[in-house]
Amino acid sequence: MNEYTLLIAAGNTATLVTGGAVATLAYRAFRRTGSPALRALALGFACIVLGSVVGGAIHLLGNNVALGVAAQSLATAGGFAVLLYSLFVDRSTTETVSMRWSG
């Protein structure tokens, strides 16, 4: 363990809590609407969070910072690829409704 262990653990905990909340809310929205874009959004954030947890665990338990950073970086890149996909999937069913204020 080194002087950055507490900082890494705190950062990964914050990522787990906040990213986990976003992934959970996106998944609940997917369950409610059935939107493939929301399913992909939930999966993308889950990949990012999982990568952070796995990277932190490799660092803390395996004492290998480089491998932990590599695992976290790969999972983050994959998660962002899924997030990018979520922006383009299921575009045909989106309906825009405009409302005018008449007051």
Overview of this protein structure:
It is a single chain. The longest helix has 29 residues, at 5-33. The protein has helices at 5-33, 36-62, 65-88. The radius of gyration is 18 Å and the shape is elongated. The chain has three helices and no strands. It is 78% helix and 0% strand. Helix 1 runs antiparallel to helix 2 (36-62) and helix 2 runs antiparallel to helix 3 (65-88). It is mostly helical and 103 residues long. It starts with a helix and ends in a 15-residue tail after the last helix.
Average pLDDT value? 88
SSE order: HHH
Give me the count of strands: 0
Q: Given the structure, what is the number of helices?
A: 3
Global outline? elongated
User: pLDDT below 50 for ≥5 consecutive residues: which ranges?
Assistant: none
Whole-angstrom Rg: 18 Å
Percentage beta strand:
under 5%
Helical proportion, percent range: over 70%
Oligomer: single chain
Gap between N and C termini, in Å? 65 Å
The class by helix and strand makeup works out as mainly alpha
**Largest sheet composition:** none
